[in-house]
């Protein structure tokens, strides 16, 4: 064991202590978040479980009937179907316009001050409080075009809400396609559209899908814009289509959670479990999609 | 190789004759230079990348471009098929005649130009598609979809890649090694039969065996096509090219002459220093 004292002149005690302190601080912060989330989920699960056990709320009724004035007959299906309709219409309204704008901004628009202004404002739009979109749709579509408080109006509000998110995340996905691929395509005599259609979009589509799903997972939990537009808080019927009045999962939760009487609280908890399950599966799908395709670029 | 040629399918023979007849059209103008470069200069923003260049690039010959890193070789190459159009900050001045037509004229469609002047890039850039679809890409884009299989096979054979990929044409091109990707990009560029092929260091990631094969391919190509190749390898330039252009730092074309003259008896002292390794 020669070389004793070889490193004696290097004093790392303090640097290392600082390193350890910082490590513990980071660990504590992340644990705080996880623990809070864990408590929240446990609490909701517990409240939800009490519904069928203590108040004999039937799970079948809950999942197959619309809401009702009597807690033992109240179901969540009207709200669930309302949310499904909302999501389908929201995707149709926002996806093509959103991806189209992203393609224009990334692939066609010259790099001018106006383009940069538009891009900066898109990022701002993504941060606008959701209730503002509800107000806009209330003024323009519900009252202005006298659409009334129909499902379509609700999905317009949600589509406006998610559009900037879809545009920004699609732009990121398009930007992640190496420019060498575009060069390779145009050097073989492809037009710009051929390059976009056959090289850029196929490479970017997993990223675009991931962004869209995450945006929708946010939209499905939005309450304020729907209340603003005039959603029925308690969906006592199943919605018949885009022009019908409508309820939704989050507004139903809001209604039950604020109703007097202990049974309603448990119904709200059960509804939250369903909504959380849907949101978490959407997020999981997005993560899976990303992991699956990420190595391909 | 000869036994394989005998087993060529009829379809392939047809394609060959078609190409032969296209070639004989070209032969009638064989002694003109195919590319005439006149006072061509390039700026990236305010930065000058290329001093005015003048050169006549002969048809159906191999022209090598050599010079130190950053001297504008790739920039020059990208001018020929107007790939520089796609770089916002890049502005090109002067003229570049292709068969007597200035490619920077307003009525020249760069897409049409690039169908006649293909390019292999410095960094391999395969698409995230199968090997087959990569090679077939240009053919499909240009609507040359008859006998697709034969054309794809032929391009892969010529790029010395066929034997390594013939039983996995459906696999992703991104799973190939760097050198294989480089040859795949060569196959992709030659598949639609461009008239001029621009190659930017096509052998930089290849082992000596694959390099030798690609050099064979280039010699082979030069019987019917015009090849302009950028290389950092002096021996390679000396081996395969008929003409050599030497760019030096500052984007100046210092000397352009027959390869033998450049390597044995260069007129310019700086060129001699560069070639003998005293410079750059
Ligand atoms: N897109 C670009 N934007 C701005 N400047 C550029 C761009 N491309 C190249 N340049 C500049 O132009 C000069 C010439 O670059 P070029 O790529 O043509 O060199 P090269 O001779 O091909 O070098 P190498 O042998 O390293 O490939 C360099 O100074 C480089 O910084
Ligand atoms: Mg280069």
Structure description:
The complex is a heterodimer of chains A (297) and B (280). Chain A has 297 residues and is mostly helical. Chain A has one domain (62-296): MetI-like (MetI-like fold), CATH 1.10.3720. Chain A is built from eleven helices and no strands. In chain A, α7 runs antiparallel to α8. The longest helix of chain A is centred in the N-terminal third of the chain and has 42 residues, at 13-54. Chain A starts with 12 loop residues before the first helix and ends with a helix. The mean pLDDT of chain A is 91. In chain B, α5 (131-141) packs across α6 and α5 (131-141) runs parallel beside α8 (178-190). In chain B, a hairpin with a 2-residue loop joins β4 and β5 (101-102). The radius of gyration of chain B is 19 Å and the shape is globular. With 280 residues, chain B is of the alpha/beta class. Chain B has a single domain (3-275), classed as P-loop containing nucleotide triphosphate hydrolases (Rossmann fold). A six-stranded mixed sheet of chain B has the order 6-7-8-3-9-10, with helices on both faces. Chain A binds chain B through residues 110-111, 178, 180-191, 194, 198-199, 202-203, 296-297, and chain B through 81, 83, 86, 88, 111-112, 114-115, 118-119, 121, 123, 125-129, 137-138, 141-142, 172, 174, 185, 188-189, 192. Bound molecules: adenosine-5'-triphosphate and magnesium ion. Adenosine-5'-triphosphate (ATP) is lined by residues 44, 49, 69-75, 87, 89, 122 of chain B. Magnesium ion (MG) binds at residues 73-74, 122, 200 of chain B.
């Amino acid at each position: 064991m020669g070389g004793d004292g070889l490193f004696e002149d290097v004093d790392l005690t303090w640097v290392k202590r600082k390193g350890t302190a910082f490590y513990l601080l980071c660990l504590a912060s992340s644990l705080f978040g996880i623990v809070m989330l864990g408590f929240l989920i446990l609490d909701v699960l517990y409240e939800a479980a009490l519904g069928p056990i203590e108040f004999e709320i039937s799970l079948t009724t809950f999942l197959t009937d619309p809401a009702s004035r009597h807690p033992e007959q109240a179901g969540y299906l009207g709200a669930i179907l309302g949310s499904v309709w909302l999501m389908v219409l929201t995707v149709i309204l926002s996806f093509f316009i959103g991806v189209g704008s992203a393609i224009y901004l990334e692939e066609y628009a010259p790099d001018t001050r106006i383009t940069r202004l538009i891009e900066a404002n898109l990022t701002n739009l993504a941060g606008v409080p959701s209730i503002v979109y509800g107000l806009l749709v209330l003024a323009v579509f519900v009252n202005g075009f006298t659409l009334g408080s129909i499902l379509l109006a609700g999905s317009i509000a949600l589509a406006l809400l998610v559009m900037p998110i879809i545009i920004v995340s699609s732009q990121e996905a398009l930007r992640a396609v190496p420019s060498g691929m575009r060069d390779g395509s145009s050097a073989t005599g492809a037009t710009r559209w051929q390059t976009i259609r056959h090289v850029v979009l196929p490479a970017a589509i997993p990223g675009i899908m991931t962004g869209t799903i995450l945006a929708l997972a946010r939209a499905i939990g939005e309450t304020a814009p729907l209340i603003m537009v005039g959603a029925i808080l308690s969906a006592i019927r199943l919605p018949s289509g885009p022009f019908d009045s409508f309820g939704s999962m989050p507004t139903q939760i809001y209604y039950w959670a604020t109703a007097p009487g202990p049974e309603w609280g448990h119904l709200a908890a059960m509804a939250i479990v369903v909504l959380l399950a849907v949101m978490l599966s959407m997020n999981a799908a997005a993560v899976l999609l990303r992991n699956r395709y990420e190595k391909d670029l | 190789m000869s036994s394989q040629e005998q087993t060529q399918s009829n379809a392939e023979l047809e394609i060959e004759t078609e190409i032969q007849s296209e070639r004989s059209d070209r032969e009638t103008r064989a002694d003109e230079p195919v590319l005439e470069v006149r006072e061509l200069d390039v700026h990236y923003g305010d930065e000058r990348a290329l001093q005015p260049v003048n050169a006549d690039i002969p048809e159906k010959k191999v022209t090598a471009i050599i010079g130190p890193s950053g001297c504008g070789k790739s920039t020059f190459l990208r001018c020929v098929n107007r790939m520089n159009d796609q770089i916002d900050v890049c502005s090109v001045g002067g003229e570049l005649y292709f068969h007597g037509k200035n490619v920077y004229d307003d009525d020249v469609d760069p897409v049409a130009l690039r169908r006649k002047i293909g390019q292999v890039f410095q960094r391999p850039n395969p698409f995230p598609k199968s090997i087959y679809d990569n090679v077939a890409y240009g053919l499909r884009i240009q609507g040359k979809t008859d006998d697709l299989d034969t054309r794809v096979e032929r391009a892969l054979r010529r790029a010395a890649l066929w034997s390594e990929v013939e039983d996995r044409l459906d696999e992703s091109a991104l799973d190939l090694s760097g050198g294989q990707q480089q040859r795949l990009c060569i196959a992709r560029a030659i598949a639609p039969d461009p008239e001029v092929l621009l190659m930017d260091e096509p052998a930089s990631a290849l082992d000596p065996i694959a390099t030798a094969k690609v050099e064979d391919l280039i010699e082979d190509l030069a019987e019917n096509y015009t090849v302009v190749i950028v290389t950092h390898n002096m021996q390679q330039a000396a081996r395969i090219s008929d003409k050599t252009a030497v760019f030096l730092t500052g984007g100046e074309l210092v000397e352009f002459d027959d390869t033998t003259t450049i390597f044995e008896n260069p007129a310019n002292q700086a060129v001699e220093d560069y070639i003998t390794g005293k410079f750059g």
